[in-house]
Design a protein that fits this description.
The complex is a heterodimer of chains A (566) and B (318). With 566 residues, chain A is of the alpha/beta class. Chain A has helices spanning 21-32, 68-78, 85-105, 137-152, 216-223, 251-254, 268-271, 281-293, 311-317, 319-329, 385-404, 418-429, 437-451, 458-475, 489-513, 531-534, and strands at 9-17, 37-41, 57-58, 119-120, 130-131, 155-158, 160-168, 171-179, 185-195, 228-229, 234-241, 258-260, 302-305, 338-347, 350-352, 364-366, 371-372, 455-456, 522-523, 536-543, 546-553. In chain A, β20 (536-543) and β21 form a beta hairpin. The chains are: A alpha/beta (566), B alpha+beta (318). The interface between A and B is large, with 71 and 60 residues.
């Protein structure tokens, strides 16, 4: 791998890292604004994890008698009042236009009898305002955005892996990137960089997230000096398959599926008598966990019952779930209920940005799951993540492309790649008797799932932090068996594990900091929400002396915090 | 349970790169997928094994490979289903019809180039409406069957035409094209069908069904290609050999109740297309020697009127 020390320089006005919905939406917006845009992605765009979003995308369309303020209120209540209300307003106000533009680009949304866009009900919302394509909405959006990227001729560096961001005089001016096929390392110079790398799900095991969701962008931004916000807020989705953690869409409950305990009871009547199965995700996940913990589960699971929905609804609206349950659980959902459990699904936190996607580091933007604007606060509503990626992806692309028109390229040299190359050489030289990365990854995932799941407590979180720090030490010695240049996935996974460990540490630190229960952060030792002291965000910043915690007040506009009842 | 995987390996960085099979014995859970096994392998046994995989739930399309000789997704193939009946290891090879980069990783660039070649973006006409385009839900549901394609390349891997003619657009790209031709919002049908009617397009499919069989998402690419043939002929593209073959086939069967195999090439290529017809001479001689030459005077079958009624009925239902 020695020959990878001759970087070639690439220049782009706007460099976007990640080619999921946020990244490609940003690329289209920046490209339309007449600047030179390029996208770098460690997988081909259509392999991105936006694919896996099943249920739909929220928007309050006024011509359907809906109001964006109602959507904003549901989102804020869902966030347990930790979402910044100015940001939520932007997202909900712009949602309708975003959905309509996606339809114009070619998305085949489900229709009503008049041929207009149809909606389905989703959790935590009083209106059916979720637009959808059967149960593969994310894939349908992602493939159409990719069509548009092809049409626009945006340069996409496919299967290029970002090693680090280049920061000169406090400003982000490019990135160091490895071309996976050749193993060559390049310096890409840019006037603005937009991070759109998605989530960090693999830090937990199991997780609904794809294997590529290793928190690269969150860790890269963090190391470049951008503070992370709301990192303690990790969403456990109420319906995931046992073992593999594969996702079963909330759309199933939106279409009317029931949750049952071992006694055959619809137990949600105890916890959320009005919204039942369609309460917020944190509420439903906690309810399930309580049922399981109190002995009314079945082998660590509760049951999701779709049988009464009928053949047509299942075939037309839940076709993928029919396949998934069959292939991954051996269950025919038309004939029997699916055993499900809460499973790690989404990271509400991420790189702190303003409503234009700009981070605390000039020149660096973030959008989508790796960012924290914050619109989701303590708990994200189903079908708000796709919306978040599109609205803030577009806004980041627009803002960044406006800004770069006034800027010139910073002077960057090949030396920017030196420390990454040294790091790679060091990893490749590790003792061949060393530990394999898989063991460190598994221990990390199991630790996080044990101590930072639906219910948390001080002792468990301290244990988790100590374990993560031990694993960080052990990580330095993991062996990389593959010494080759071409498509060295062994090296890539090892580098990803480094990012995951950085993310894990910030999650444990933030969780220990928040001394109350709010949204997804539920402490059995401090069970109540404490608006007096904790109506604020927890931020973690990387400093030469280690991680440093800061606080930031929540932005409240029209909606004062209230007790949260569903 | 214990399984043995025989994995086709290729390392271009080796001192003398050569393809070989490597066997691994693994202990996996009874419910494990082939991908679970491969992940365990690379995390705990042999980190040098290269493969693409991501979502583990048949939606990202990364892990198409040949399992026991047939293309499929490693993530939705159960290990227990892949165990060969007669015993022996499960054979894992890279997807076919694409150049191997390393181990199970193949070069998808030609695949993406062909997707790009069908201009896969909506081309509507006129100004955009203020709200959404109106479209019947049935049309959207029909399209959803094609949009379910995850671009995994399983169909391309096992396409029997691509194995001998790399110019063929292939099942994935043609299915993608179909999605736009049937989209009520798209206004570029004529130019799309014109291009798909050319060499490498819809008429190069041999209807072997391999793509339908291996597609993990039920897209049935071959059926979409047949749909495109119909659309092309309806749009007036009737003068290719493919279209003429289809028209002649149907006309001859309607006329006599069975296929007149002697007149089929004459009607397809044209009576005076001496070059093409002479090209068929070796086939004729071989048929004659095998005693399979079709009769010179083709007879109508008894009850041919019943066949014709079938045609009428089918026509009226179009």
């Amino acid at each position: 791998m020695e020959s990878c020390t001759l970087p070639i320089m690439f220049d782009h006005d706007v460099l976007i890292i990640g080619a999921g919905l946020a990244g490609m939406r940003a690329a289209l917006a920046a490209g339309t604004n007449g600047v030179d845009v390029a996208v770098v992605s460690k997988v081909h765009p259509v392999r991105s994890h936006s694919n896996a979003a099943q249920g739909g995308i929220n928007a309050a369309l006024t011509d359907r008698g809906d109001d964006w303020r109602d959507h904003a209120y549901d989102t804020i209540k869902g966030s347990d009042y930790l979402g910044d209300q100015d940001a939520v307003e932007v997202m909900c106000r712009e949602a309708g236009q975003e959905v309509i533009s996606m339809e114009h680009m070619g998305v085949i949304f489900s229709r009503d009898d008049q041929g207009r866009l149809g909606t389905r009900a989703f959790g935590g919302q009083r209106q059916a305002r979720t637009f959808f394509v059967a149960d593969f909405t994310g894939q349908a959006l992602l493939h159409v955005l990719h069509e548009q990227v092809l049409k626009a001729g945006v340069r996409v560096y496919e299967e290029w892996f970002v090693l680090s961001l280049i920061v000169e005089a406090g400003e982000c001016v490019g990135a160091v990137v490895m071309e996976m096929r050749s193993g060559d390392v390049h310096v890409v110079r840019a006037k603005a960089v937009i991070m759109a790398t998605g989530g960090l799900g693999r830090v937990f095991e199991p997780s609904t997230n794809a294997l590529i969701c290793t928190g690269d962008g969150i860790a890269l931004g963090y190391k470049a000096g951008a503070p992370l916000m709301d990192q303690e807020m990790v969403q456990y989705h109420p319906t995931t398959l046992k073992g593999s953690g594969v996702l079963i869409t909330e759309g199933a409950r939106g279409e009317g599926a029931h949750l049952l305990n071992s006694e055959g009871d619809r137990f949600m009547k105890t916890y959320a008598p009005n919204m039942m199965e369609l309460a917020s995700r944190d509420v439903v996940s906690r309810s399930e966990q309580t049922e399981i913990d109190e002995g009314r589960g079945i082998d660590g699971c509760v049951l999701l019952d779709c049988r009464h929905l009928g053949e047509q609804v299942i075939r037309e609206k839940l076709s993928q779930i029919l396949e998934i349950a069959r292939d991954f659980a051996g269950v025919d959902i038309r004939k029997e209920p699916i055993p499900i459990q809460p499973g790690m699904h989404y990271q509400m936190g991420g790189i702190k940005t303003d409503i234009n996607g700009l981070t605390a580091v000039p020149g660096l933007y973030a959008a989508g799951e790796c960012a924290c604007v914050s619109v989701h606060g303590g708990n994200r509503l189903g079908a708000n993540s796709l919306l978040d990626t599109l609205v803030f992806g577009r806004r980041s692309g627009e803002h960044a492309s406006d800004q770069v028109k006034k800027k010139s390229f910073a002077s960057v040299t090949d030396a920017s790649a030196d420390s990454d190359l040294a790091n790679i050489r060091r990893l490749l030289k590790n003792d061949d008797d060393g530990e394999m990365f898989g063991r460190v990854r598994q221990e990390l995932g199991q630790t996080m799932d044990k101590h930072l799941a639906v219910y948390r407590n001080q002792q468990g979180m301290e244990e988790a932090l100590a374990k993560v720090r031990e694993l960080k030490e052990r990580y330095r010695q993991v062996r990389v068996q593959d010494k080759g240049k071409t498509f060295n996935t062994n090296l890539i996974f090892t580098l990803e594990l480094g990012f995951m460990l950085d993310c894990a540490e910030t999650i444990a630190l933030s969780a220990l900091e928040r001394k109350e229960s709010r949204g997804a952060h539920t402490r059995t030792d401090i069970p109540d929400r404490d608006d007096e002291n904790w109506l604020k965000h927890v931020l973690v910043k990387s400093t030469p002396d280690g991680p440093q915690i800061e606080h930031l007040p929540v932005v409240i506009t029209d909606w004062e915090p209230q007790a949260r009842v569903y | 349970m214990q399984v043995t995987l025989s994995v086709k390996r290729f390392d271009p960085d080796a001192d003398s790169p050569e393809t070989h099979f490597q066997e691994y014995k693994l202990e996996v859970e009874d419910t494990a997928t082939v991908l679970d096994g491969l992940i365990k392998l690379r995390e705990e046994v042999d980190g040098t094994l290269a493969l693409r995989c991501s979502c583990r739930s048949a939606i990202c399309g990364s892990c198409a490979m040949r399992i026991n000789g047939q293309a499929g997704l490693a993530c939705n193939t159960k290990m227990s289903d892949a165990l060969p009946r007669g015993g022996g290891p499960i054979t894992i090879e890279p997807a076919g019809n694409m150049e191997v980069i390393k181990d199970l990783v193949v070069d998808f660039q030609p695949f993406w180039d062909k997707i790009r070649a069908v201009e896969p973006w909506l081309q509507p006409e006129g100004p955009e409406p203020e709200t959404e385009y109106l479209a019947p839900n049935e049309a959207m549901l029909h399209e959803a069957g094609v949009m379910a394609c995850i671009m995994c390349g399983a169909c391309v891997s096992d396409c029997t035409v691509l194995a001998i003619d790399s110019n063929f657009l292939g099942p994935a790209a043609l299915a993608k094209a179909y999605r736009f031709v049937v989209d009520p919002r798209d206004a570029a049908d004529e130019s799309r069908l014109g291009k798909l009617n050319e060499y490498g397009g819809v008429w190069d499919c041999t209807r072997c069904m391999a793509c339908v069989e291996v597609c993990p998402k039920g897209v049935a690419p071959m059926d979409r290609i047949m749909g495109l043939r119909d659309k092309a002929m309806e749009a007036g593209y009737t003068n290719t050999y493919g279209a003429r073959h289809a028209a002649a086939f149907s006309e001859l069967v309607e006329h006599s109740g069975t296929l007149d195999e002697l007149r089929l090439p004459i009607k397809t290529f044209g009576m005076f297309n001496i070059k093409k017809l002479l090209g068929l001479l070796p086939v004729g001689i071989r048929a004659q020697m095998a005693g399979k030459r079709p009769p010179i005077f083709h007879k109508k079958i008894p009850g041919v009127q019943n066949v014709r009624r079938l045609f009428e009925k089918a026509e009226s239902r179009r």
